[in-house]
Design goal:
Belongs to the 'phage' integrase family. The protein folds into three domains: 95 residues, Double Stranded RNA Binding Domain (2-Layer Sandwich), CATH 3.30.160.390; 94 residues; 218 residues, Intergrase catalytic core (hpI Integrase, Chain A, Orthogonal Bundle), CATH 1.10.443.10. It is elongated and about 85 Å long. A five-stranded mixed beta sheet has the order 1-2-3-4-5. Strands 6-7-8 form a three-stranded antiparallel beta sheet. Strands 9-10 form a two-stranded antiparallel sheet. Helix 6 packs antiparallel against helix 7 and helix 8 crosses helix 17. It is built from 18 helices and ten strands. It is of the alpha+beta class and 439 residues long.
Length: 439
């Protein structure tokens, strides 16, 4: 049982010296141990002597790297403080686990982990609805899925319970939702095991209910014309219409458009600046706004201010406020608004009079038409804020800080001109591609 001063680098590379596992005791915190197994798992434990009977105990603190070394040391010190005063942390942990339900775990995971991610709201919605059987306020959903396992205690949780939850979603025909919930459960169970809430990763070896096929839907010029016209009379909130249109004009993610705030927008300079915490790759993103986008945002701000005045409340910081105005409308609400436009006639399904599409398909449509207009793929990547374009090589990531705003502005303005021709002339406008302009 070697004793070493543990470091993050050491923990990352730790392997058993002989046999199936080796315990590496920390030279900094008494009793803290990193156990490296031949299977590649590295787990933090705290070894201590129970005061009540003098027996040696081993308490699991979590799995590296789910729990970092600094956090493991802090947790070990905290637990040792209780042990000195006669506490029995293992017994307490067992009692806590015995009383903790899957619904409790979902709320812990949402609060402590998922909420910190960009997709946190969607993860919370999926887990609460399909696993806990609850809405956002914690109220039981009437007629919830038969696969709800929120009341199952963690001490009695089995793989078949997780399968039951997934199968119930699949059986109602929501294959994509089932795959997403499977991924959410896998992440939550891994997190719970790393914290010590579960003794094993129950999802290990389980296969997703289906394999999702990558979408490649792109709307043609004719489809854009038809869709835009149908959207004007669609039964939905005007703000939803504007969000859908902005996804097509800007090639932006629907969640980013939904969460747009007043502070992010500079209408005088026609710029939208998204802070790192609001984008997928955590890189500040500056997007130029064509005049048609500026006009839509101005109209939405005016409507939002009128609503706030009518409701006798302060205007929301969000340009597309949700119910109550405290938060933004969610991307799921826009997806549902589109889904409600679905029509099936003679076996053919359409949304807004064209083949079914999503807001992400509109983002792809924008990128495709930009390419047809001769825009450099590198610039398209910057407009879409793709990590491969933003990071690039070590040279571009560290030294080249130019944001290509001029090139992005030119590209989106050319696309807006083409789009205006499609919408108002019913045909592709005679817009000169970038390559021909430069000739």
């Amino acid at each position: 049982m070697p004793k070493v001063e543990l470091t993050d680098r050491f923990c990352q590379a730790a392997k058993p010296t002989t046999g199936r596992q080796t315990d590496y005791f920390d030279a900094i915190v008494k009793g803290l141990c990193l156990t490296a197994s031949s299977g590649g798992t590295r787990t933090f434990y705290l070894h201590y002597t129970r005061l009540s009977d003098g027996k040696r105990q081993r308490m699991k603190l979590g799995t590296f790297p789910d729990i970092k070394l600094a956090a493991a040391r802090e947790k070990a010190r905290e637990v040792r403080g209780g042990i000195i005063n006669g506490a029995d942390p293992i017994a307490e942990k067992k009692a806590e686990a015995a009383s903790m339900s899957v619904a409790d775990l979902v709320e812990n995971y949402v609060t402590r982990r998922a909420s910190k991610n960009r997709s946190g709201d969607e993860v919370a919605r999926r887990l609460r609805k399909n696993v806990s059987g609850q809405d956002a306020e914690g109220h039981t959903i009437e007629g919830a899925s038969t696969g709800v396992i929120g009341n199952v205690k963690l001490s009695g949780l089995h793989r078949r319970d997780l399968t039951k939850a997934i199968d119930a979603i699949t059986d109602r025909g929501a294959t994509t939702e089932a795959v997403r919930v499977f991924e959410d459960l896998r992440a939550m169970v891994r997190w719970a095991r790393g914290r010590g809430d579960l003794d094993a990763n129950l999802m290990e070896g389980m296969q997703p209910p289906a394999k999702l096929v990558a979408r490649d839907r792109v709307l043609t010029a004719d489809e854009i014309h038809v869709m835009w016209k149908a959207l004007a009379s669609a039964d939905m909130w005007e703000g939803s219409r504007r969000i859908i249109r902005l996804c097509l004009i800007l090639g932006a993610r629907v969640g980013e458009v939904c969460g747009m705030t007043r502070d992010e927008i500079d209408l005088d300079r026609a710029l939208w600046v998204l802070p790192p915490e609001r984008v997928k790759n955590a890189n500040r993103h500056t997007l130029p706004l064509p005049s048609m986008a500026v006009d839509m945002i101005r109209e939405q701000l005016a409507d939002a201010d009128k609503l706030a005045k009518r409701m006798e409340r302060q205007p929301s910081e969000f340009i597309f406020p949700g119910v109550g105005g405290k938060g933004p409308v969610g991307g799921a609400a826009i997806a549902k608004a589109l889904k409600r436009q679905e029509v099936i006639t003679t076996g053919r399904t359409t949304i807004l009079s064209v083949e079914p599409f999503t807001c992400h398909d509109l983002r792809r449509t924008c990128a495709t038409h930009l390419a047809e207009l001769g825009v450099n793929p590198f610039i398209i990547g910057h407009i879409l804020n793709h990590i491969t374009s933003i990071k690039g090589t070590i040279t571009t990531a560290v030294y080249a800080r130019y944001d290509y705003l001029k090139e992005k502005t030119e590209a989106l303005n050319i696309w807006a001109d083409r789009l205006a021709g499609i919408l108002f002339d019913g045909a592709v406008a005679n817009v000169v591609p970038i390559a021909e302009r430069a000739a």
